[in-house]
Write a structure and sequence with these properties.
heterodimer; A: alpha/beta; Rossmann fold; 8-stranded mixed beta sheet; two-stranded antiparallel ribbon; 10 strands; 34% helix; elongated; B: alpha/beta; 4-stranded antiparallel beta sheet; 31% helix; globular; binds adenosine-5'-triphosphate; binds iron/sulfur cluster; binds magnesium ion
Chain lengths: 316, 339
């Protein structure tokens, strides 16, 4: 990951979109300082809190970071089994998550378990609290994870591909749940996903990552209507949509996602970019403002590319 | 492969005539000893439909509903517990020996996981060419020539014929799987979630390849997926599966514009669309709970435990048959189109 910087406002829902290897999960992990060895946060700051009394996550002591992880920020993963203990009852694990952070008294923590399970719509929560994780279905485990993450009323919930392993009907339940929690509790959400449709559904702002960099960023509506980076533009045209008729050819993005150990020179997307110019092969473009609130990392930008080659607009 | 060995396609690809017809196909897996002894997973539990020559039939449904099992049974990779599978009006279930082998050449399968489905110790050339050896069709130079040919057709560089699967990316591995399925000149291909393991930017390459191959070689596809957007893009007709049963079959347009079964309707409403404006209006029908176990499926209509419009006792007692509700649109529901 190189020089990634972005912000999330209080109560905001931000989507981070990218393919495998784009650095989107590493970004989230570094917010929690969970980056595995040998990766490390080489430089930069991760600021959290209101203007004026911000804490820098990178500078925090181990105690502070532990506090921060449970209290201010919670994270849920694609596979909830990796973050639940298989030999402990689900209710007990939720209670322990609260006990670890001392925001609630032990009695309060105990009393909050069932309402938390109810809040994430687990049926018969009193009985289910006594189950072990393997007795839950995939969707229920994901909801229990969310309950655990929310039990300390964090300001920010980071969800890393929370619905990827789930069926569409269950995915719909989880998206609705995240939406409600954001609306009712004001919890800010960072949603990390490869699924653009889920972002369109849930997020007000979107960050597109490619080869460990932010390549485009802005309000969701604006990015989907008028993407300025060729990668975003191509991605949106390469996915079939439920509301479109069959047998229109999909646009393909040629080549492969980049090898991060050996990235190309210049713009990291240039080997796959159909709009590249000479400069792209040598010089990496900066992430610059292209419209109010919208930034893109490209020398050309789609509005110029399409003006120069209008036939590309509809053509795969 | 020489011309006389090439299967002369006698398939009517007008999308009107059944190429594959399955009748009351059942596939049960016995599970466990001891306490669970004698129990069976009713993975596919009495399914009938047809795939017409030249078409793509999409098969959709949630995880565990039996899609892969059904695909494998049709492709002759699993024996059916009971039922009939007609291919060009010949019941494969009753065929044996040489006759079955000849038929099997024409039925091929593409798998979901391009990592697990290729033997890591074989070269790409051997993986793709193996069916030619197994079916005693070509050896040596002739085999290599044909392997080269399908590699090119599938967008693989024939110069890589001696490499091993791990040297290829996911998308290229899926091309290897497709080349292997094509090498015997099949008429019918079961594609089991061929793109769901791939990166988003690679998926369109494979979807387009499958479409091009269909046009060029007059293939008929059974395309299995849980992603209904891809299915809509590719399919002429769609079959929806729930807990071992087909609940709806219709033209792609009919299914998407006018779903009759409540499950299909809920499934379609659950799918987000990559357009924030449309998303703001979409109202998903949220189903209660999750799919019940295929070991003890619910009585009557299997969907009654989650159905928003179930009426009792009829829905919990009487199993609705899959029947034509007009202009070939089949649904298995006592109250079709009422959600
Ligand atoms: N070899 C087997 N032995 C026992 N049970 C099996 C076997 N293969 C599949 N099953 C069971 O049969 C049911 C249907 O499985 P199948 O793999 O066909 O579902 P699917 O619709 O393809 O699901 P997915 O979308 O997850 O791939 C499941 O309950 C599964 O656990
Ligand atoms: S900088 Fe050049 S290569 Fe990179 S995305 Fe823009 S046009 Fe394409
Ligand atoms: S038969 Fe009854 S329970 Fe089944 S789908 Fe129709 S209305 Fe729902
Ligand atoms: Mg399957």
């Amino acid at each position: 990951m190189d020089g990634v910087s972005f912000h999330v406002d209080r109560g905001e829902t931000v989507g981070i979109v990218g393919e495998s290897g784009s650095g989107k999960s590493v970004t989230a992990m570094s917010i929690l300082r969970l980056v595995a060895e040998p990766g490390r946060i080489a430089s930069g700051r991760i600021l959290f809190g209101d203007e004026g009394k911000q804490k820098d996550v990178v500078q925090m002591t181990d105690d502070e970071i532990r506090e921060f992880r449970g209290n201010d920020v919670a994270m849920i993963f694609q596979d909830p089994m990796t973050s639940m203990n298989p030999v402990l009852k689900v209710g007990f694990q939720i209670k322990e998550a609260m006990a670890a952070h001392e925001r609630f008294t032990p009695k309060q923590a105990r009393d909050r378990v069932v309402p938390m399970l109810k809040r994430v719509r687990i049926p018969a929560p009193e009985d289910r609290a006594k189950n072990y994780p393997h007795q839950f279905s995939g969707g229920m485990r994901q909801r229990a994870m969310i309950a655990m993450g929310l039990s300390n009323e964090p300001h920010l919930l980071i969800a890393d591909e929370p619905t990827t392993a789930l069926d569409v009907t269950v995915q719909a339940q989880i998206i609705e749940l995240l939406r409600d929690l954001n609306r009712d509790l004001g919890t800010a959400v960072i949603l990390i996903t490869h699924n653009l449709a889920v972002v369109a559904s849930l997020c007000t702002r979107v960050i597109v990552m490619y080869a460990g960099r932010i390549v485009e960023e802005g309000p969701t509506r604006q990015i989907f209507k008028s993407p300025q980076h060729p990668y975003t533009w191509s991605l949106l045209r390469s996915i079939p949509r439920l509301d479109e008729y069959q047998h229109e050819k999909l646009l393909t993005i040629s080549g492969l996602p980049p090898d991060l150990t050996n990235p190309p020179p210049g713009c990291k997307f240039h080997p796959r970019c159909r709009f590249r110019v000479d400069r792209c092969l040598e010089e990496e473009p900066p992430l610059g403002e292209v419209d109010p609130g919208q930034k893109a990392r490209c020398w050309v930008l789609m509005r110029n590319a399409l003006a120069a080659q209008p036939q590309q607009a509809g053509q795969p | 492969m020489t011309t006389e060995q090439r299967v002369v396609s006698d398939v009517d690809t007008s999308k009107q005539i059944a190429l594959v017809r399955i009748e009351e196909v059942v596939k049960h897996f016995p599970i466990g000893a001891g306490l669970l002894g004698g129990q069976v997973v009713k993975a596919v539990d009495g399914v009938s439909f047809e795939v017409r020559g030249g078409e793509t039939l999409g098969l959709v449904g949630e995880s565990g509903c039996g899609k892969s099992t059904l695909g494998r049974v049709i492709a002759q990779l699993h024996p059916a517990t009971s039922g009939h599978i007609y291919f060009k009006d010949i019941d494969l279930v009753t065929l044996k020996g040489e006759k079955l082998r000849r038929m099997r050449q024409q039925l091929q399968m593409i798998f979901q996981d391009p990592y697990a489905s290729l033997n890591p110790r074989m070269t790409v050339g051997d993986i793709i060419g193996e069916p030619l050896t197994n079916f005693h069709i070509a050896r040596g130079k002739a085999r290599e020539k044909r392997v080269n040919e399908v590699m090119r057709i599938c967008g693989l560089n024939p110069g890589f014929i001696s490499r091993y699967p791990h040297e290829f990316s996911g998308g290229q591995r899926q091309r290897i799987g497709i080349a292997r399925a094509l090498i015997l000149n099949p008429t019918f291909i079961v594609a089991d979630e061929p793109i769901s393991a791939l990166d988003v930017s690679i998926q369109a390459q494979i979807v387009n390849l499958l479409e091009d191959l269909q046009d060029e070689f007059k293939l008929t596809y059974l395309f299995i997926a849980h992603d209904l957007s891809v299915v809509r893009h590719l399919s002429d007709r769609v079959a929806v599966m729930y807990l071992g049963k087909i609940v709806e079959v219709a033209d792609s347009k009919q299914i998407y514009d006018n779903p009759l079964h409540p499950y299909t309707k809920a499934l379609l409403s659950s799918i987000p669309i990559p357009d924030p404006d449309l998303e703001a209006e979409r109202e998903p029908i949220l189903l209660k709970g999750e799919i019940p176990s295929p070991v003890n499926p619910p009585t009557g209509c299997r969907f009654h435990t989650r159905c928003p419009i179930a009426q009792f006792p009829i829905c919990s007692e009487q199993e609705p048959p899959l029947e034509d509700k007009g202009s070939g649109h089949q649904a298995a529901c006592h109250f079709p189109g009422q959600l």
